[in-house]
Amino acid sequence: MGRAHEVRAASMAKTAMIKSKLYSKFGKEIYMAAKSGSTDPNSNLTLKKIIEKAKSSQVPADVIKRNIEKAKGGAGEDYSPVRYEGFGPGGCTIIVECMTDNVNRTFGEVRACFTKTGGKLGVTGSVVHNYSYISYFVFEGMTEDEALEALIMAEVDITEIETDEDGVVTIQGAASDLDKIKDALVAAKPEISFLEEKVTYLPSEWIEISEDDQRKLNRFINITNELEDVQDIFHNVGNLIEEEE
Question: What pTM was estimated for this model as a whole?
Fold first, then answer.
């Protein structure tokens, strides 16, 4: 079968792992939203929004249904959001967000990832003060002026808006206003195309690190993303060239 078969097998395994991780991430969010409110998306706006995001990320319908049914039964895990902060290669800062049913297990696993890549897990608050927790949108098909008018008419405030040379618009706003911003833009122009729409941690300052430190950070991201409880990873490295493990 040779090298080509090995490469294909490795690629298929990596794709399967990425899909499994994605399904697990949305599964937990759907389960918790359904358990904490109504299991009917029509009367549970939070659940409805998560389902919409899951579908846009091509999460299968059976994964969505299974987690809603699990919430209906009242049995199953109770997940809690946990944030870990630390310092990585080249003095970069890192935030790892998790959803876990066992904090002790998750703490040990995340700390091991920092240690394996030459980093150090910090205490709560040691890093996050250098970040802003925001809504972040990148879209095309709508001008900056049109977007501003739509947001003003909907009485939605934003903190920043800019347009690049290709006409792609970026908007930043309060994390709690993610749905309000999107709803206002879509109402004004239904054909708008979102390239990114998320709540994220934006660093107050980006740094650059060496190629060797970039390899270490990429390894940290890869092994941390393999952890079942990890939802998102944020850092302040502006020159990171992502590579496969």
Answer: 0.81
CA 150 to CA 141: how far, in whole Å?
14
> Is the per-residue pLDDT at 10 higher than 70?
no
Domains of the chain: 2-73 (1.10.10.200), 79-245 (3.30.70.980)
pLDDT at position 56: 86
Taking the CA atoms of the chain, what radius of gyration do you get in angstroms? 20
CA distance 170 to 144: 9
Burial class (CB in 10 A: 0-12, 13-18, 19+), 3: exposed
Per-residue pLDDT band at 74 (split at 50, 70, 90):
low
CA 211/CA 239 separation, integer angstroms: 9
Q: Which amino acid does the sequence have at 1?
A: M
Distance CA 224, CA 59 (A): 22
3-state secondary structure of 1: coil
